[in-house]
Amino acid sequence: MPTSSAPADPARALRRAWNSLRPTAEKQRYHHVFEQAVTALQDRATPLSHEQACWLDRQLRRAGTGPHGVFVLAAAPATLLRSATPTPLIN
Fold it and tell me: Which domain of life is it from (predicted)?
């Protein structure tokens, strides 16, 4: 069982975090990319690995800490889809 506090439904958690960000031009610009990736993540049949859950937890925490949140959240779903273990990323 993962020790991270990442939620069981990553797509829902990502959407909730995205919706909590302030409206900005960057958020509007990246919204379609984010939605496509989250939908693909939601349609994925396999659950997140422990490493992915921990990584997602860190990304959700980072997103709320500043103006870079849009970029953190826009990249997170695609990264989870691309890699079984996204640990090589800069955290």
Answer: Bacteria
Region of poorest pLDDT, from 6-10, 27-31, 86-90: 86-90
Helices (H), strands (E): how many in the chain? 4, 0
21 in Cβ contact with 66 (< 8 Å) = no
Q: Is there a contact between 66 and 57 (Cβ–Cβ < 8 Å)?
A: no
d(CA 37, CA 55): 17
Is 2's pLDDT higher than 60? no
Tell me if 51 sits within 8 A of 4, measured CB to CB: no
pLDDT, position 1 = 46
User: Which residues make Cβ contacts (< 8 Å) with residue 17, sequence separation at least 6?
Assistant: 60, 63, 64, 69, 73
